[in-house]
Structures are given as C-alpha cells and as structure tokens.
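Researcher: I'd like a candidate sequence for this fold, 97 residues long. If you have to choose between options at a position, lean toward the conservative one.
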C-alpha cells in the first residue's frame, strides 16, 4: 500500500520505546510481530499483548480492552490496532515515550 500522507509512518519504521517505559516489552514485541500479523490478514483488528504473549486479536478496541481488564486486574497490558501505516501525532511540548 502506498503511504497515505505525510503524517503517517510504516509499521517497519516504528521507533523503539524507551526501555524503562512501563509497556516497552509489549510495544517492542508488537513491532517485531506486526509484519506477520499484517501478512495473516489482521489489518484493522486489535491485539492484546501481555509481556511477549499475544493474548488474542479482536475486531474492536472495546473487545480487546474488556478482555485485558478481565484477565489482568490491576496490571498493565498493551492493546494496539494492527495497521500498516500508523498516524503520527506531533505535540511540541510532549516527550517521547
């Protein structure tokens, strides 16, 4: 697919998260798996990750979040939409993860 515009980045170019970030393990695992997930036809769906384990893939964010809250009460977990092109939001005052 062709790049949709200047405010988008390919999943291949997603930068790593700072290692001390709470969800760095999950995010970096997603970065490594994104190509495979896209090749399997999951674009647009939502993935739930805990550490380096894919818990499941759902059609909606709400479904993935609900499962995360049910399984990981009081714990962090990572939910991400599987996309070939991620929209980049630039906020001048924000620090990178």
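Model: Candidate sequence:
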């Amino acid at each position: 697919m062709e790049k949709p515009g200047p405010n988008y980045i390919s999943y291949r170019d997603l930068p790593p998260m700072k290692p001390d970030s709470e969800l760095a393990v999950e995010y970096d695992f997603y970065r490594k798996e994104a190509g495979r997930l896209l090749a399997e036809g999951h674009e647009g769906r939502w993935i739930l990750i805990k550490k380096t384990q894919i818990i499941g893939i759902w059609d909606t964010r709400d479904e993935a979040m609900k499962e995360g809250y049910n399984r990981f009460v009081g714990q962090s977990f990572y939910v991400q939409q599987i996309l070939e092109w991620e929209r980049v939001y630039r906020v001048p005052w924000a620090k990178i993860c």
